[in-house]
Each structure stands twice: as C-alpha cells, then as structure tokens.
Amino acid sequence: MTASATTEPADATMQATSPEDAERRAIEPADLCRLRAVGDVAIHPDGHTVVYAIAWPDADSDSNRSLLYSIGIDGTGNRQLSHGQRDTVPKFSPDGTRLAFLRAEPDRPTSVMILAWPVGELTEVARFVDGATTLCWAGDDRLIVTAPRRPAGQEGVEDEELARRPRIVTALDYRYNGRGYIHDRPRQISAVSGLSGDATIEQIGRPGVDHGAVAVSPDGRLVAAVAGTDDDRDLTGFNHIWLYAIDGSGEPARLTGVGGNWTHLVWHRDGPLVATGTTEAARTGFHRPHLIGLPDQGRTPSVEPLGHHDYNVVPDRMSGNAVVAVDGAVLYPGVRRGRIAIDRYGLDGTHGVVYEQDDQVLAFDASADGSTVVAAVTTPDRPAELWRLDGVPDRLVGLNDELLARLDLGRTERVAVTSADGTEVEAFVVRPPATAPGGDGLQPGLVYVHGGPMFQYGLGFFDEFQMAAACGYVVIGGNPRGSDGYGEAWATAIVGDLGNRDWADVSAIADHLAALPEVDPDRVGIGGGSYGGFMTAWALSHDQRFGAGLVERAVTSWHTMYGTSDIGTWFSAKTIGATIEADPAEVTRQSPLHYAAAVTTPTLIVHAEQDWRCPIEQAEQLFAAIRRSGGDAILVRFPGENHELTRSGSPSHRVERFEIVHEFFAHHLGGADFGSTHLPPANDEWP
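The chain above was modelled as a monomer; its predicted structure follows.
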C-alpha cells in the first residue's frame, strides 16, 4: 500500500514530515505517549467528508485521550472538531446536519454532545453518570444511547457511600472486566429526544436486563438490541436479540428462537436485520461467529446465514465500526492470515472482497452506495492512519511521520513453520533494527504467544514486538492451531484438548527461532498474555530449554476460573470441553497449575489487580506453586488496572510494564533494558 497523497493536520497533536536524513534511534517506552492512532471513522451522508478520531496515551494527564477531526474525502480541509478529554463514537444524523458523539471527562458523567454541521454550535444534550457504550440515530431528532443505569435507591448517592455498602448478587455475571460491578447497574437503552431544545430521556427495552449492541430500523420506529434474558444466561453466556418500539408501544418481541452469542447488529435499509454471532446452543464447544440475516424487518424468529465464508469474521478486533450497510450488502472485517480485510456480503448470499493487502483495517465506514470506503489502517511499521481504500489506496492523514522518521524499527517477515505432525503454521519474525544493541554477535530470541486463544498475530503495528526488537531480541510470534484467520477447523482444533496441538505448534515455532543463524539457542525466552500466559506457563513446565518466561494475565487453573472470572463458567466449559462437576480430572489435566512444580525457569508473573477476565488469583496460585517447589519467580501486581493493561491501561503503567519486562529479560537472556531499576536485586546483590 502506497500513499498518493498526505495531508498533515496543523494541530499540535500531529506531526509534520521530517527530513529523510534525520538521525534514527530505537523505539523506547516513552514513545508510547508520542505515537498517535486513528480510531473511530464516520463518513458524512453526502460522501464528501469523513470524521475520524485520533487517540493516544497522554503522559501529562496519565490517561487515554481522543479528539475528533474532519477531512475532505479528497484529502483537503483537515481541521480539528473537538477539544475534550476523550471524544469518541462520532455519528452523523441521517440528514447530515448534526454530528453526535460521546465525551468522557475525568470525574464527570459521560456527555452526549451534538455539533451542528459543518461549523456550528456544540451542545451537550444528555449526561450519563456511569458512562455510555453505544450511540446511534433514530431519525434526525432522536438518539438511542446504551448506558448503565443505577436503581432508584442509588440515585444521588455519593460513590464513596456506594462503595461502602454490601453488594448483594444473585447471578454469576455480577461483574465484568473493565466495567466493574454490573449486578445493580445493567446497561439500559435510552431514547434522547428534543435535541433542538430541552432534551428528554425515556427508557425503552426490558428494565433490569443488561443490553449490548443495538440497531435502529430504517423508519426510526424500532430498535433491535442484544440482551441476556434467559435465567441461566450466567451459566451459558448466551443472549438473544429483542425488538422494541421506541415509543414504548406494544410488547417486546424476541427475534431469536434459541440462545446464541450475538455481538453486533446493523439494520439494513433494504429490510433485513444483520447480526454477528452463532446460534450454537450447546454448552460445550466453540463455533466462530458469522453473519446472520433476520428477514422481514427482523420479525421472524428463525435465522439464516448471510452467505458463507470459512475465514473468521471477528468484529471485536475493530476499534470503530465493525459492520457497515451499503446498497445491497453489508461490509464486514475479514480476519485471515495475519491480515484484517474488508469483505462484502451481499443480501443475495454472495461474497466478495472490497479490500485486502498486507495490513490490518481497525475501523472503517463507507458511503451509502459503497463506492467510497475510508478506514483506519495499520501496518507492521505504522500505527493506524486514515486511508481511502476505494480505487488506488490513498493515505489521507499521516499522524506520526516526524517521529517515525527518527525511529529505527524492527523488520517484520512472514515465515512458515512445520509442526511435529507436518502441519504448516504461519509465524511472523521481527528482527532488531540496526540501532539495537548486540548486533555484532549472536542475538537472544523471544517467542510470544497471543491471547484468545482465538486471536491472531499479523501485519499490524505491535508495540510489544517493537520494544523487544529495540532491546536486541529476534522476536517470533505465530498463529498456532486455535488462532483466528485460518478457518473454522483451525480455530476450533484445540477445543477440549489444550496443551496438545497448540503446544506442538508453539514448540515448533520456538524451534524455528532457535535455528535462525543470528539467534543464540541458549538465550531464548518465551512470553504471552491471557491464553498466551496460559501457554507460557504450560511451556515452562513441559520444556526446560527457555532461559526466562513472562506469564501475563494468564489462565493457570480452570478449577478456580469457573467461579472467579467474569465469563469463567461458560467460557471454561466451552474451551476445555469439561466441567468440574462432570470431569474434574480433565479440568486438572488442562490446567498449567497442575504442572507448576516442574517449572525451574526464571519466571516473571505480571497481573492487574482488577483483572476480572483472568482474576489475579490465577497469578497468585502460580507464583505460590513455583516458589513452594523451589523455583525462581517474581510477581508484579498493577493496581487499578484490568485485563486490558497492555492495550488501554494508564500510560504510566504501560511504560513501567515495558521497563520491568525488559529489565527481567535482560538479567536472564542478556538483551538490553531501558535503564530502569524496578526489580529488587538478588540476595547477593544488595548493597
């Protein structure tokens, strides 16, 4: 992909192009707060202008910020639209006269803002004390907002008093990673009307039920919403799609006959409601989500696949829009072989590719007829920037030219690895840049395993790999069986048998790295987060070849995941194919904690204290088990952070984490560090 035009914003948050002969250096943790990335993207109904969000970790406020900008589709007229702390989710009214968005400010309710278009008055029309998650238009003078709602007895009560009160829960899904305690404040749907004067807020939907994705009918009268309404939803993880009249008339209608896992909705102007998910109702076994069309204005309970494409469609990878309706079709991300493309699913059942190159699309939007497509696109050496993708790809806005001209980044290469049973596994090698230390001799290596397990490493900018390469490591990250991007059979090949095929593939990836001529096979480490932490703990107990291991936000015991994780009851059963009640021996067999006494490799265990996806007790148990067996382990706890520490944690914690990780690896593998001294010295090194 090459840029045929570049427009640089004049705002101070942007950076102008620098001379090509700028002195180059390796990336460092502080650069996290210097890099900018495009997030949400929205095309004006006339197809001539696009609004986009620019996000970055802000060192001064130690928070994640986001501002809105607009630019002509021809690359002209770039300007800043908003000046808040965190402005996100821009949505144009159908007639194009207004732009709505959400504004989050420290210690204040989330605001719904409306900007008269193109250059008009900015108005706050509503506030939601516990934040808001979704925003969409229902006609030209009404907004639909999904936001947590407190019970009447908590309205006006100070947060300090609420934190003091006991929490009384009746279901297992009472808290959620990143959202906090949700048992007494489910997400409710609000209709915000009267946007031109005194706005009014009316609740619609099922009271007391937690709602997710929403979509509004073309006539603006109905809203479809995802909601977990079954009595055993906390045991299965299943939800349904419901239909509500925005004016409150009639009874709610359930559109799905059996429980499923529904995540995204879009209501096509030609009639069908299009949903992402699966109708698989079994309590064990994973099936990847696909597009489903609910015909007849969404009133038919049965569901029909909208075409079929074996490659996974995973909208949760997107930072902005995940599905966009255009004439006769919907556009949807296609996750395959390290790429994230844009696919076209016709309402007639056809499938085609709108855009696919060696990169990853993280958000996109399209004009109504589908002729114009804009997206946030990232490559291995650039964070997401704004591109026009119809015709010859054309970069509209470059955010990091000056900084990237000074950075000497690692080079990414796609490789094929052969597993023990002959299966070919794709992996990506990132080699140290010329400015990294230790380039004159053999270099240490790092094997990284991604989370999920149904995720993928690939052709986007990944700070983890670049920081490691800057410290002199040859890095490899692969997509073993269980990963996204290689079809249904590949993604589900490890279900019910973790530590078998996936471990064989990871072991083969490590073999490939150790055999590279520039790598010292005696100085190879391994690390990963979530499922990647699971696999790292598994590797350290089944193979003594690694010089150091990083176990981060990991699953180590399926026994306790059942009762402590926000999704543990149903996710555990679906992943390992067993339950504590029916087969405790199988639950034990697939738990790394069962083998922890065999770990002799120096191990760094990093966890966030408010991680409710893989709760910190998982780290505590592994730490205790390694120490009790005489092993060498360090536990690092990050207060105030959750499972998303490495992606959306506070900037200071993200910087400190990189410093700690590479201080640890430097001690055991001989790579460089970032000059920090976070970790305590060994007993014989105290002054």
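Confidence is low (pLDDT under 50) at residues 1-21, 297-302.
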